Amino acid sequence: MPDAETSRDLLRQMALIRRFEEEAGRQYQRAKAGGFLHLAIGEEATIVGTTSVMEERDYLIGTYRTHGHAIARGTDPRNVMAELFGREDGTARGRGGSMHIFDGDRRFMGGYGIVGGNLPIAAGLALASDYKGTDEVTVCMFGDGASNTGNFGETMNLAALWSLPIVFLVENNLYGMGTAIARHSAVTDLSHKAEGLGVPGERVDGQDVVAMRECVADHLEIARRDRRPTLVEAFTYRYRGHSAADPEVYRDKDEVEEWQRRDPIEIFARRLIDAGTIAEADLEAIREEVEAQVLDAVEFADASEEPPLDSLYDNLYVFGADHEGWYAVDERTPDPFRGEREREAAEDERVRELHEAGASYGGQVRRSGGGSGEGPENGTDAPADEAQADEEGGTDGGQAEESRQQGPGGLD
Amino acid sequence: MATMRMREALNEALREEMERDESVFLMGEDIAVFEGAFKVTQGLMDQFGERRVRDTPISENTIVGTGVGAAMAGLRPVVELMTVNFSLLAFDQIINHAAAIPYMFNGQVRVPLVIRMPGGGGHQLGPTHSHSFEAMFLQIPGILVACPSTAADGKGLLKTAIRDDNPVIFVEHETLYGIRGEVPEDDHVVEFGSAAVRREGSDVTIVGILKMAHEAERAAETLAAEHGVEAEVIDPRTLRPLDLDTILDSVRKTNRAVIVEEGWPHGGVGANLAALIQEQAFDHLDAPIQRVTGADVPMPYSKRLEQSAIPHPEHIVSAVLETTSGALP
Ligand SMILES: Cc1ncc(C[n+]2csc(CCOP(=O)(O)OP(=O)(O)O)c2C)c(N)n1
Ligand SMILES: [Mg+2]
Question: What was the pLDDT predicted at A378?
């Protein structure tokens, strides 16, 4: 068992992620966050067990279910929440949203919306560490469903062939969206799935934060010292639907309840109390701490400005040298994009007005601290009724609200 | 006639074609038990069983490739990709295989494969789930490209796609699944290569695809009510084959053209159409052709930024007024 301080910290981090995710779900229902929202409730021990044994210099890369991963790496929950709100203070200034959290300073190298897309990138991160002669390790987390992508097989082979310092960590929550593992993977013991490609693996109880720590620590050591990739299969479960709108027709309530009896936070808290490491009062203190932190994150996110419209093209290209030529042919392009016609266009009042007209379909600018400020098309903060949103035919501004409903917004 | 939503119309097309032809079957991620991310395949596994409605692993290139092989061996697979962005993982099978095989084997074998996929922005799905790749598909010789904007066309074009002996990319728009419309009963098919004139007008031709066909109609209403401009609105319905004649006839009448799409401007559908129109009807043009496109960026997540990156009726009205400035009342 880790020492008392570490234990308390593990518990606090898991509790923080849980509370953050619950609140993210609530803010999504209030239409403060949009798009798809994938929560990692139930998978906290897998996340925290892993990050807690990583060094600061190690890289972590994950999927579209990584609010918690960023937070566990040290990203301020305020900035993650602001990203979900699509605001200036978000981890990507509202460009990426929930599926694309990133924090380079903490070497959280991103969440990615394309299943399997992060695997080869992980190989590249590890290649760079190797190339530079460092002892950094890359931890690459992905789902059971991702183990069926071509990227999985190709990356495993390359990583083994080139002896790359990677720990692949499959968060096996038994489902890829609504498809149970036995229906999507011929080999269901994923710890063996990459063996024939040169990457041996080990299964670990992903609900047990201590087991996770020990297992991942061993594998980090193999990568760091022996320079070879391995695969950890964390056996875990997501308590919520795949995304916010999932009606969960593909699994029984009994199964969910059975896994809820193995709640990673409760199990660990109970263990610490039984061992006398913490008292019930500490538990309460942790709850209050994370509650305050999450509510503060919401307040912060809500007060953060909307990104200005003329930032639409920010960071699309690097303008170092004085390249000639047109980078874009869009009249919305502001002047750093060169080309006289574009510069003129950007100054053109008509263009500005049109830009604003387009944006107004997404509601009015929300000023810090002030009111609901919803745009005319949006009506209310409350999520639209699906049938009603559907009724409108789905081509007006109001249909953005549909995204939290199961129909038009889809479920992936 | 029955009134139904786009997703129901597509569902009906699949159901009817599967009933009609035993060689038609479906493959895709979460299309069977889950009934599709957008519920287009609702009820089909129950009716046809798992032999004909197949859940697949997350393996886009392999699913499409399996479709290519099955099509070469005489079946008529309909593959669903959850989002157009995921089709990028299958570009090898689409371009190097599906599109090339009939040609490179000199017609000894055909690839009667349909690949359905929803695209488009508006749901805040950000830079990996929101794009419009019609132009990319349009560029590929060997495949056909259909893009329905109404429920009736959804059904009619999908049935035609399934019966066609070529590989067909069938692009759906995520925000149009809920749109309602009248759909003719029974075996309603819409020929490929026949554009629909959504509104007649004499002053300017507006061509719009998918959601932009609707935005073009809205813009036309504003133009008539507020600017005295009568726009003709054309929805090509298929980009390959393209009913260029209907578009050219219209331009010869109106002498002005505006093309609207949600995709990127560089090498877009509008760029292509503008080239074709000026090649074939230059003498009939009274003003430069205008294009209205999505912004030249990966789609941002923030609601306002996203909406500012997507064309709206205001943009179309403005582009039309550019073509008519001074010349019309
Ligand atoms: C290439 C690609 N195909 C399909 C999808 C749609 N999709 C998003 S998540 C998902 C399921 C992934 O399951 P898994 O890898 O087990 O991760 P989990 O969601 O369970 O964490 C699917 C099919 C996608 N995002 N990218
Ligand atoms: Mg999974």
Answer: 28
| Closest in A249, A312, A390 to B300, CB measured | A312
Domain boundary, last residue among A303, A335, A350: A303
Q: Tell me which of A303, A332, A360 is where a domain ends.
A: A303
Residues lying with their CB under 5 A of ligand 2, a single-atom ion: A 143-144, 173, 176
What letter represents residue A124's amino acid? G
DSSP string, A232-263: EEEE---SS-SSTT---TTS-HHHHHHHHTT-
Quick one: pLDDT at residue B186?
Answer: 87
Q: What is the domain extent for residue A329?
A: 309-411
Q: Are residues A126 and A247 in the same domain?
A: yes
Domains, chain B, ordered by start: 2-183 (3.40.50.970), 196-323 (3.40.50.920)
Number of domains making up chain A: 2
Task: Give the residue, by CA position, lying nearest to ligand 1 atom 5.
Answer: A115
Asked if A315 and A290 sit in the same domain, the reply is: no
Contact A364, A305 (CB under 8 A): no
* Residue A95 and residue A21 share a domain: yes
Instruction: Indicate if A261 and A322 belong to the same structural domain.
Output: no
CATH code of the domain in which A83 resides: 3.40.50.970
The answer to whether residues B190 and B156 touch, using CB atoms and an 8 Å cutoff, is yes
CA of B42: which chain A residue's CA is closest?
Answer: A407
Which helix (H) or strand (E) segment holds residue A11: the answer is: helix A4-29
Which of A320, A325, A317 lies closest to A342, judged by CA?
A325
Q: Residue B218, exposed/middle/buried by CB under 10 A (0-12, 13-18, 19+)?
A: middle
Predicted confidence (pLDDT) per residue in A114-152, tens digit: 999 999 999 999 999 999 999 999 999 999 999 999 999
Instruction: Let me know whether A261 and A356 are in one domain.
Output: no
Same-domain pairing of A94 and A216: yes
* Cβ contact B301–A150 (<8 Å): no
The token pair at A287 is 């709850």
* A226: enclosing H helix or E strand: none
Task: Report d(CA B327, CA B258) in Å as an integer.
Answer: 16
Extract the tokens encoding A405: 């409903």
What rounded mean pLDDT belongs to chain A? 87
Same domain (yes/no): A228, A346 = no
- Best mutation site among B30, B31, B58 for ligand 1, i.e. most ligand atoms within 8 A of its Cβ? B58
Cβ–Cβ gap B33/A402 under 8 Å: no
Using the mean position of ligand 1's atoms as its centre, give its distance from the Cα of residue B47 in Å.
Answer: 26
Question: Would you say A100 and A111 are in contact if contact means Cβ atoms under 8 Å apart?
Answer: yes
CB A32 within 8 A of CB A91: no
- B267-290 per-position pLDDT tens digit: 999 999 999 999 999 999 999 999
Statement to judge: residues A216 and A351 lie in one domain: no
Length of chain B, please?
A: 329
Closest residue to A149, CB basis, from B5, B58, B310 = B58
Query: Three-class SS of residue A177?
Result: coil
Contact B291, B270 (CB under 8 A): yes
Task: Please give the number of the atom of ligand 1 that sits closest to the Cα of B29.
Answer: 23
Is B322 known to be catalytic? no
What is the predicted ipTM? 0.95
Please choose, from the candidates A71, A76, A80, A25, the residue with its C-alpha nearest in 3D space to the C-alpha of residue A48.
Answer: A71
